[in-house]
Amino acid sequence: MDTLRFWRALAVRVHRDERGAVSLETILIIGAIALPILIFLIKFGWPRIRAYFIKGLEDLEEGADAAAGAPQ
Fold first, then answer.
1. Number of structural domains, the chain?
2. Which domain does 61 fall in, by range?
3. Residue 57, domain member (yes or no)
4. Does a structural domain hold residue 46?
């Protein structure tokens, strides 16, 4: 009987405690806003971002090759 009483007391105590509810709600709202934006960026924006950085790396390599081959 003691364990049953313990679990009931624990359940009442946990369910009545609302600390952190506002924080949890805020996190859920931020997630609901950020998730579609993240999906959109990954699906449509990532190829453009990737191409931009690849172009930058190629330009950097060309500049490094030109600087290494330049007479001093």
1. 1
2. 21-65
3. yes
4. yes
Runs of H (alpha helix) within 17-45: 21-40
CB atoms within 10 A of CB 46: 11
Place of tokens 């405690």: 17
Cα-atom radius of gyration of the chain, to the nearest Å? 28
d(CA 9, CA 15): 10
Question: What is the distance in angstroms between the CA of the first residue and the CA of the last residue of the chain?
Answer: 90
Burial letters for 50-62: b for 16+ Cβ neighbours within 10 Å, e otherwise? Answer: eeeeeeeeeeeee
The pTM assigned to this predicted structure is 0.47
Q: What is the pLDDT along the chain (72 residues), one digit of tens a residue?
A: 688 888 887 777 766 667 778 888 999 999 999 999 999 988 888 888 899 999 999 999 999 988 887 655
